[in-house]
Design goal:
single chain; about 80 residues; alpha+beta; three-stranded antiparallel β-sheet; 2 helices
Length: about 80
């Protein structure tokens, strides 16, 4: 029984530790002043404009790839 409780505790810790990583969503944003784009995990800033849909990308690589295709972003 003691091993069972320890196993449940370890499993719940593992789930709690990995859940935020699995839930991460990325957005492409554009700085209003410089017109440069970047990839962010949160979109709460007022100096940035979200390009497309906020949180539309599940990985940072997907968002970076999409950002390279946006014609209004200065490189």
């Amino acid at each position: 029984m003691k091993n069972f409780v320890a196993g449940i505790f370890a499993l719940s810790f593992l789930v709690a530790a990995t859940t935020p990583v699995l839930a991460a969503e990325f957005s492409v944003v554009q700085d209003k002043a410089t017109m440069k784009c970047s990839v962010v995990e949160t979109t709460t800033t007022t100096t940035m404009t979200v390009i497309g849909v906020a949180g539309a990308y599940k990985t940072q690589d997907d968002a970076t790839t999409a950002m390279t295709k946006v014609t209004t972003c200065k490189q």
